[in-house]
Amino acid sequence: MSIPPEALQKLLSEIEQKAAFSQQQIGIVKSQMAAKNRESRMLQLTTVELDGLPKDANIYEGVGKMFVACPPSEVKVRIAKESEDLKKDVENLEKKLNYLETTYKNSKEHLEAIFKNGGR
Fold it and tell me: pTM (2 decimals)?
């Protein structure tokens, strides 16, 4: 049994749109993951620098256009929390990337199957 040309055209259009959208989203997610990894690396480097400072060193954090003195323990706790949040974000982005890659792969397979069978 053959699919009518109008229905086949509509189906092909929908699959192509889904594949294009997935491919676009894959690029966005990969760039978001790269940004999160850069942030994570910056936090790691900051932690290493904090560990190298003497215990009585003055630490200042930027708040808007000014700097506020903070105890090193508070800064380390904040950095640890931010690191955990970044790890969770990266895990979620990896799941989203996996879903999008699967969607893209399936769309391409469907298109190939339709072209291989000639719309039958």
Answer: 0.79
